[in-house]
Amino acid sequence: QSALTQPASVSGSPGQSITISCTGTSSDVGGYNYVSWYQQHPGKAPKLIIYDVTKRPSGVSNRFSGSKSGNTASLTISGLQAEDEADYYCNSYTTSTTYVVFGGGTKLTVL
Amino acid sequence: EVQLVDSGGGLIQPGGSLRLSCVASGFTFRTYTMNWVRQAPGKGLEWLSYISTSSNTIYYADSVKGRFTISRDNAKNSLYLQMNSLRAEDTAVYYCARDGNSYGPDFDYWGQGTLVTVSS
Fold first, then answer.
1. Potential cystine with B38: which of A72, A99, B92, B100 (Cβ 3.0-4.6 Å)?
2. Per-residue pLDDT tens digits for A49-60
3. How far apart are CA A51 and CA B57, in angstroms?
């Protein structure tokens, strides 16, 4: 099945804000408010940071926020910190295959 | 504290079989739907399979349909993935992941992963 499209890499300086996009179709991102975002540090399991497009799990910093417009969801990280350097993945409910599709992942570098 | 502990990985020859396990603790396992997700070395996350609370509904990714079987034992707080006809491209870290409270795929807790290497 086709993955959601994410930029391979983004970068930013400490204190800045960055946005990572996640583009799908009307069968997934555009059709449902079921987009989640995950942060993964090297050698670690992924961590849920955003679900249902905009919601933050308990304990996740409010520097992380999510949004959606049409077939594209976005993750914004404000006030970048060194610890934010990680890989970020989106996923979405989908009707084009079965249940779930992931994005290809975006490597965030904090300069 | 919610915990998911993955196990069962290892080195297996192409065409072989392996059974992964995921033992849950710290929550009422029987009330949560569960998933398996894998990550090939240096690659992204790939969702593999979903199972409902009572095992009535099961989904698979096309890449593993017909070869992998997901199951659960609510009495043992355990999730399983039976993997048959393994191929080199199945080499990956395999994670079990719990579905959170959303209707969509929000995987709120993950196991630590277990590495499966398919090689002769």
1. B92
2. 999 999 999 999
3. 22
